[in-house]
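Morning!

This is the sequence you dropped in the shared folder:
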Amino acid sequence: MSLTHEVLAPTPMRAIFSARSQVQHMLDFEAALARSEAALGIIPAEAATAIVACCSSDRYDVADLAERARQAGTTALPVVQALTSAVPEAHRRWVHWGSTTQDVVDSGLMLQAAEGIDLLLAWLAEVGTLTARLADEHRRSVMAGRGFLRHALPVTFGLKAAQWTVGVADLVHRLRRTRNEDLAVQLGGANGTLASLGGRGHELVPLLAADLGLVAPVMPWHSVRDRIGHLAGTVGIVAPIMAKIARDIGLMMQTEVEEVFESTHDRPASTAMPHKRNPVEAMTVVACAQAASGLVGALQSGLVQEHERSLGSWQAEPLLVADLFLATGGAVEALRNSLAHLEVRPEAMRRNLQLTGGLVMSESVVYALAGKVGRTEAFRLVDDAVRAARASGTDFATHLAAEPAITALLDLDELSQALDPYGYLGSTDHFIDEAIGHLDAVLHEEIRTPPC
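The structure's back. Tokens below.
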């Protein structure tokens, strides 16, 4: 892997999609196939025991297998050949019985994807816990809500973090569903009929799936790759949602804003500018999301395949799926690091809320007036006041208090209430409670065993 992979892709995810791990998962398929066939009496039990004993990747030279795979044009063929040679001669003929190379590659990839999703789920639970904590701790940290990058209405940082929390919880739910429903074993034999198994292939599939902890498909899916499409779509949405949070953090770290900071006191700032405090973790998240999105498109474009076995499309999937998991894992890990060391500055949020001179409360004043003169007239009065305050450079509250058309309808107490950002937060507390409760419910869902 490149130095960039070392920087962006987390070590545990690289281990899952390493060459040795790929070999091991293909051997896991072969071991499960032998056990399942022995259970049905398709191959002798002694042969299955001998095959399983040789299904550890530690027995094989992975570099040599990689070189042979380049010559063969498939990763599975040299693995099956090496396994066959390792098994005692009396049992060799039962190795890979009734299967084909695509069965090995696809099933191995599904096992890797299952491990990759399990890792993402664990990390996302940590991310969600961090965002939920921020939501709860900053319920009253009032700040400017921003639309089109401009100040809109007052919100709280807790509400912003609650939105993040719901996004994370929904990702956990979708990933878990993919893990339980879409990751299927592949067993179709030479061309999808399992003819070599003498009419017993359909009995073998559920046993094999249960052994591997994968879904038993209705039939082989050699050239109908909707499962790959679902996997790409579900995993592929994770990094962009992480990047939405990271983008918020990066924007809030701008020098002109400085509402949050990534605590990176021990990290070099810049090769040229010692004063810089860069949002390095947020940057990593966005970079990984950019890579992940392109990989999703590449996987989706490969769904159109020919007849019973495609020429080139499915063969690209292991590389693309691996890179998708590496990029996604990089995004989740970097965001977890960012959130774990995030400095929140409520005083800067309050300061920035006043940058418009109180104009962020214009809607509140409209609705305070609307009960007396109707919304249309109220909007006109406040719009005129906003324009006049901007033109004169006067604070919004000062201008309103001196405007007869306003004071004729609102006394000073009513006007003060309408201009209080803490009094115009609507259902914020309720939404924060709901977000935290939603995450808790999702994280404590019982993870059911895949159907077989």
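Headline: The chain is about 65% helix and 5% strand.

More detail when I'm at my desk.
O.
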